[in-house]
């Protein structure tokens, strides 16, 4: 076998096609993984829409992947063909000061991201560094394991690390799609109380209640901020997590914060945002932090949480499509058809 099927995106033309491409060969320190499942993420849509860019003239998208090791570029302790794995989507650049000093890949200052800096996993096979591999127990379906890589791990990292949510802190989550709903679940794991979910869609709010939110609020309601204030006993939120990425949601989330409140921004768009007058912002000592991605340790933790039954993501896969139908999957996510959490491609 010398070729494989892969989705290829050409930035110059904006075209996404599925075609035959050469089967990549792993070098020492790398693994060739047969892809079992790969998610379609809003970051992928941002690449296809030109919001995110790549320096490559053509690239295979897809960065939420799980599969089985097909072969290794060289014998590697602890790994062998047939092992079930989920993939960390980053690799060290090898040339930044941290890499030169021998730091771990997670500490790379210019980390390269699968599907943006090198070919991703909307394909039958993908080559990744062995350091990107995380073992998946046999009782976790690979399509669920794929969801852990970004859809769950990014909001989980935002909650437990960037926001550093502590038990009994009040948390609000704006936007209850694939990232936001898993932020709700992660905040529940961290002990948030009360945990408030905000989304204009009634179905999304109901889903959040089923996934662990204590309350659900329509952020477009005239009294939305009054509701949040009442639910927090007038104190406001300790933590607001914005998974929407719009100027108006950032501003509303900031206004919902209480004293020393922390706003963590996960959602991304080209919007400019205004957090309001400086004086109350400084007086109340708000903190605003952007968040992107996760560390390999977060995926390892999530695998354990799923394996032990502490985290249930069985309902996170909204649909599974063959690779040849990638354009249909993209369309469904773009149009929010069926209000999907994650649409999975099965090459």
Relevant terms:
347 residues, seven-stranded mixed β-sheet, six-stranded parallel β-sheet, 10 helices, globular
Description:
This protein is an alpha/beta fold and 347 residues long. It folds into two domains: 3-151 and 294-346, Quinone Oxidoreductase, Chain A, domain 1 (Alpha-Beta Complex); 164-290, 3-Layer(aba) Sandwich (Rossmann fold). Helix content is 29%, strand content 27%. It is built from ten helices and 17 strands. It has helices at residues 42-49, 97-100, 142-162, 178-190, 202-210, 224-231, 247-255, 278-283, 296-307, 326-335, and strands at 3-10, 15-22, 30-40, 65-72, 84-87, 90-91, 112-113, 125-129, 133-135, 171-174, 195-198, 215-217, 237-242, 257-265, 287-290, 317-322, 342-346. The strands form four sheets. Strands 3, 4, 5, 8, 9, 16 and 17 form a seven-stranded mixed sheet that branches. A six-stranded parallel sheet has the order 12-11-10-13-14-15, with helices on both faces. β1 (3-10) and β2 form a beta hairpin. The radius of gyration is 20 Å and the shape is globular. The chain starts with a strand and ends with a strand. The mean pLDDT is 93.
């Amino acid at each position: 076998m010398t070729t494989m099927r892969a989705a290829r995106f050409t930035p110059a033309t904006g075209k996404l096609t599925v075609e035959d491409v050469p089967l990549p060969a792993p070098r020492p320190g790398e693994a060739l993984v047969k892809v079992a499942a790969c998610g379609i993420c809003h970051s992928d849509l941002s690449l296809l829409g030109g919001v995110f860019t790549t320096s490559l003239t053509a690239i295979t998208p897809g960065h939420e992947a799980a599969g089985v090791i097909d072969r290794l570029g060289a014998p590697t302790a602890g790994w062998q063909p047939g092992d079930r794995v989920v993939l960390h989507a980053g690799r060290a650049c090898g040339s930044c000061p941290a890499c030169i000093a021998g730091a771990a890949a997670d500490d790379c200052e210019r980390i390269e991201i699968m599907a943006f800096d090198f070919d991703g996993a909307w394909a039958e096979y993908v080559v990744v560094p062995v350091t990107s591999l995380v073992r998946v127990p046999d009782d976790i379906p690979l399509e669920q394991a794929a969801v852990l890589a970004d859809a769950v791990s990014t909001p989980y990292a935002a909650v437990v690390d960037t926001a550093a949510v502590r038990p009994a802190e009040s948390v609000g989550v704006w936007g209850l799609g694939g990232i936001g709903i898993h932020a709700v679940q992660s905040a529940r794991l961290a002990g948030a109380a009360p945990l408030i979910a905000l989304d204009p869609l009634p179905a999304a709010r109901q889903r959040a209640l089923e996934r662990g939110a204590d309350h659900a609020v329509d952020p477009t309601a005239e009294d939305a901020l009054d509701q949040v204030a009442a639910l927090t006993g007038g104190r406001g939120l300790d933590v607001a997590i914005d998974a929407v990425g719009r100027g108006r949601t950032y501003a509303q989330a900031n206004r919902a914060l209480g004293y020393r409140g922390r706003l963590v921004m996960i959602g991304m768009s080209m919007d400019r945002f205004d957090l309001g007058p400086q004086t109350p912002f400084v007086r109340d000592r708000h903190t605003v932090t952007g968040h992107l991605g996760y560390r390999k340790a977060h995926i390892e933790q999530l695998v354990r949480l799923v394996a032990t039954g502490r985290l249930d993501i069985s309902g996170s896969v909204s649909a599974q499509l063959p690779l040849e139908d990638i354009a249909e999957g993209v369309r469904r996510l773009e149009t929010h058809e069926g209000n999907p959490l994650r649409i999975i491609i099965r090459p």
